[in-house]
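Give me C-alpha cells for this 423-residue protein.
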Amino acid sequence: MPYVHRIVDDELDELLKSLSALALEGPRGVGKTATAVRRAKTVFRLDEPAQLEILAAGPALLDAGEGTVVIDEWQRYPAVWDFVRRRVDDGAKPGRFLLTGSSTSVESPTHSGAGRIVQLRMRPMSLAERGLANPTVSLAGLLQGGRGAVRGTTGVDLPEYAHEILASGFPGIRRLQGRARRAQIEGYLARVVTRDFPDQGLRVRRPDELRAWLTAYAAATSTTTSYDRLLTAATPGEAGKPSKVTTIAYRDVLSSLWLLDPVAGWSTSLGQLRRLTQAPKHNLADPALAAHLLGIGSDALLRGEASGPEVLRDGTLFGALFESLVAQSVKVYAQANEAAVYHLRTRAGEHEVDLIVERADKRVVAFDVKLAQSPDPSDLRHLHWLREQLGERLLDAAVITTGTRAYRRDDGVAVIPAVLLGA
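Here you go.
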C-alpha cells in the first residue's frame, strides 16, 4: 500500500533540521511508524519483545551508527526517554532521535524532557489528506487576515461526507469496507480495554461498564455535556453506577492513549467575552469510533436518525459527527500553522462559535460548521456578533458547509465546503 503524504511530514522535516530529538505522538494505528521510519537510518521497534530486550540490555546501541534513530513505541521502555534527553544535553546533532508513542508513560520517574524533546501530535487523516478534493482555501491564508477572495468547487456531496465519517482517518481502517471495517474498529476498541488499559496501570473489572461510558461519550460528540450527565446517560436507571473516581480514571487513561481529543473552551479577558464557559466539547480521536460505538450507518445518518444514549444536543447526530470530523481536520491544519483550536460559548448559551483558531498573538479565525449546502442568514449571527466584540482581532470568519462552492459573502464571511479547506 503506497504511503500517503501527511501534513505532519512537512512539520517533521522542518523541525528535524534544527532539533536533536522529536517525539511523534498519537493514538495507535494513526500512522506514526510509517511516517517516522521514512526518515530513519536505524529503527528500534519496542513493541517487538526481542528488540526491547536487546535495547534494555544495552541502551548504548542508540548511539551506534549515523543519521536518524527511530525508537518506535518508546513508552514500552520509559528509560529510553531519559537516555535521549541526556544525549540531547550532551550535544546530539539535529535530527538524531525520533521517538513515537501511542500513550504517555505512566511511570513517574521519566523526566519531562522539556526543552530537549519536542512533542508533536499526529492525528487521523484530515479531509485534505484523504484525497477527496484539491483544497483551494488554506488556513494559513485565512490566518494572514485581509479577507481575500475565496474560490473553488467540488463534487463531494452529503452522502460522501456520511461515508467519510464512517470510513475513518486511520490508514489501516479506511482501506477496508463494510463488515471488515466494522470488525477492525471493534477489534481496535477491544484491544483498548484488554491490553491498553492494563498497560496504563488500570485493569478494567467490568468491560461493559467502560464500553457504556465510551458510548455515552460518543453520543455527546460536539457537545459540552457534563461528565455527571455522561455517567447518567451511560447507566440510565441503574442503582449500582460506577463511581465518579472510576469514570475519571476512564477519562484519564483514554486521554493518555490519545483517544480523546476534546475542543477546549476559549478564554479571553476582553469585555463581555469574559463570560465564557470553559467546558470542553467532547470528541473522540476519530468520529468513525463514535459512529461505531453508536451502531449507526450512513443511511441512518442521512435520514437524520439518532442512536445510543440520549444526550442533549442541538441538531442531528449527523451534524454532530460532521462537526467532529471538521474539528479533527482543522486541528491538523492549525498545528501546521502553529495555532491552537478552541470553541466559544457564553455561559448562558446566547452565543457560540464552533471553532476558534488562535495565533500566538491572540488574533483569531472563527468557524461555524453547518451540515448544509449553504448557510442560512440566521446561521451567521454568532460570527457577526464575534466580529463586533473582537474588531481587528478577528482576522477572518467562515462557515464550513457540505456545499459545492467556496465563496465570500457580501458581509465578508467566507463559505467553504469542508473538503476545500486545507492547511
